[in-house]
Amino acid sequence: FVFLWGQKQERTSTWFGMHTLEGRKTEVVDVMRKIWTGKWSGAKCPKVKKIHIGGKYANDDVELSINRKYVATAVIEDAGNIDELEFKWELRKESKSTASGGDFEEVPPQIAMENAVVTKNELQFYAPKERGEYRLYVYINDRDEYTAHANIPTKVI
C-alpha cells in the first residue's frame, strides 16, 4: 500500500510524494502502477540516473568558488526523445530547518542564476556571490504530465 504523505518540504521538496507541487506525476506513480497491475503504463516517466557539477557528484562534497562558472549535467534515461523534454533548473539555499516528524518546514528561497544557459540536460551557471550551503535542483518535464527530478547539495566557499 501507499502512505500518501502529500507534497511538502522536508529537507528538500523532492524526497517525498508521488506528485510535484504542480500535480505532475513522478516515477513513483509508474512503480506503484506496475506493482498493483503487473504492467507498466504506456508512457513512462523520464528518469534521472545521476546529476553532477563539473564531474563531481553529491558524495564528492561539491564545493564551488564564489561567482565562478560551472556546468551541471543531469544524466537521464528517457523512454522517449530528449528533444521533447523540458529542463528546469533551480538553485536554493540549503534548508536550515531542525523540524522533525512531519512538522512544517518553509521552502528555502530560490537564488537567481543570472546569465545561466540551459542546453537540454546541461546548465551553465555562476556560483552565488555569497558563501554558504545551497542545493541545485533539476526538473525534467515530458509531454505526458510526468516530471523527473534530482538535486545536488553544494557549498560555496
Strand order of the largest sheet: 2-9-8-4-5
Average per-residue pLDDT, rounded, comes to 84
Distinct helical segment count = 1
> Roughly how many Å is the radius of gyration?
16 Å
Main sheet specs: 5 strands, mixed
Low-confidence stretches: none
Please provide the count of β strands: 9
Distance between the termini: 44 Å
What is the share of helical residues? Answer: under 10%
Strand content: 35-45%
What structural category characterises the helix and strand content? mainly beta
H/E element order: HEEEEEEEEE
The rough form would be described as globular
Structure explained in plain terms:
- It is built from one helix and nine strands.
- The longest helix has 11 residues, at 27-37.
- Helix content is 7%, strand content 36%.
- The N and C termini lie far apart (44 Å).
- With 157 residues, it is mainly beta.
SSE layout and pairing:
Elements (H helix, E strand, L loop, with lengths): L26 H11 L9 E7 L9 E2 L4 E9 L8 E8 L16 E2 L5 E3 L2 E5 L5 E10 L5 E10 L1
Parallel strand pairs: 2-9
Antiparallel strand pairs: 1-3, 3-7, 4-5, 4-8, 6-7, 8-9
Concise account of the structure shown:
This protein is mostly beta strands. The chain contains one helix and nine strands; from the N terminus they run αβββββββββ. Strand 8 (132-141) and strand 9 (147-156) form a beta hairpin.
List keywords for this structure.
9 strands; five-stranded mixed beta sheet; single chain; 157 residues; globular; mainly beta; four-stranded antiparallel beta sheet
